[in-house]
Automatic annotation (TrEMBL):
Gene source species: Bacillus spizizenii (strain DSM 15029 / JCM 12233 / NBRC 101239 / NRRL B-23049 / TU-B-10) (Bacillus subtilis subsp. spizizenii)
InterPro entries: AAA+_ATPase (IPR003593), ABC_carbohydrate_import_ATPase (IPR050107), ABC_transporter-like_ATP-bd (IPR003439), ABC_transporter-like_CS (IPR017871), P-loop_NTPase (IPR027417)
Membrane topology recorded in Swiss-Prot or TrEMBL: Peripheral membrane protein
Subcellular localization, as worded in the UniProt entry: Cell membrane
Protein's name in the database: ABC transporter
Keyword Zinc: no
PROSITE patterns: ABC_TRANSPORTER_1 (PS00211), ABC_TRANSPORTER_2 (PS50893)
Amino acid sequence: MEYVIEMLNIRKEFPGIVANDNINLQVKKGEIHALLGENGAGKSTLMNVLFGLYQPERGEIRVRGEKVHINSPNKANDLGIGMVHQHFMLVDTFTVAENIILGKEPKKFGRIDRKRAVQEVQDISDQYGLQIHPGAKVADISVGMQQRAEILKTLYRGADILIFDEPTAVLTPHEIKELMQIMKNLVNEGKSIILITHKLKEIMEVCDRVTIIRKGKGIKTLDVRDTNKDELASLMVGREVSFKTEKKAAQPGAEVLAIDGITVKDTRGVETVRDLSLSVKAGEIVGIAGVDGNGQSELIEAITGLRNTDSGTITLNGKQIQNLTPRKVTESGIGHIPQDRHKHGLVLDFPIGENIVLQSYYKKPYAAFGVLHKGEMYKKARCLISEYDVRTPDEYTHARALSGGNQQKAIIGREVDRNPDLLIAAQPTRGLDVGAIEFVHKKLIEQRDAGKAVLLLSFELEEIMNLSDRIAVIFEGHIIATVDPQDTTEQELGLLMAGSMQKEAGKANG
């Protein structure tokens, strides 16, 4: 059997942790091979070893049967290995073509041959069905298109083995479908793909084989056609996982959040929320369903004090809170799990212990007379790290060093522990594995059952349908319908979200 990639007994250690414990991975030519594991299982570390970003303590790598030493990404590129990172490595102010040729510019008479560059980029785009415009500025294109630019960049450098690191974490359902087709096009053209993911649906849909990693150890490699979602989930987490969220019927109480006719502008000064009204009661989860870019982010920012409103009112427990500072909003009884955990959720270069008290560090017992009591902070952090199963060497480890899922658990612990009247959960399970998703869903339902109001924003239709008691559909800044998840389907929701179907919105604030 000829493998294009063999990683044999790879061991990679970091201070206090063995990230890869003698893992084996063998990838066949022309296959899509999934690397599946929980957050922090060691998937990205293993691929960073293959791409030359990390050097292993032990083990060997073979590419097309030849033993190699990959000591840098340049060496990986020379061997035909390209990596599409989770966080894109693009220059916003450059065009797509300029980003792609950067460092490998075609020259003519000693100068960059822009015409040839654009043509080459266009040719690759056409060959693999990427449908991306080489002259578009990166800042002006969608996240899905930026990802295509990253794929193009690896192809332009001659990669025939492509590593995709959690490629669908930031994509809309439609973009995910398109990416799956692009991946199929790539293998049809003779490429081999390693897909780092924890989305079981995607593995079942496009992958040929799957290698499961748990807590740094290789567990098993399976043919996808011989397995199913339940088996993969239990191999990944080490126990059975429930995909259906168990919950009893909601018992809505008094209105907690009342939004009446608000208008909000984005950073360009364009109205993205227009005359929007919405209501969330105690003891219910209201889900906001919509295609990304229809005003959801600006709506959440307006409620949490991160963005001002131009008109209308936002009322929490009968008191107006629009245009207050984020701290005032937080103190009025709002908890916020932000959709961008790095930008609005954590200070990455602070210890995780300090991040856990970011919302309350200035209050007793963490501070008195302007002096911080770090002992109390870390004591609290230890409790929440244990309660929320935040996997970290200790509470002094910088937030940056934790996996995405563990960063998310820390944020959820911090926000839920403050016991807010309204919990806003924006993309709360983005980038999380099935075990962590199950945990987060349970916590949101616990909040609802404790009589709290929960506002859920998610681009995962399954999540919206599973968790919500009511679903408000947002399109072009308006709530165009409010539906009961029991009385709708994913297809109907998709049509509403696309604006291609009107449904009597009734009182959108229910």
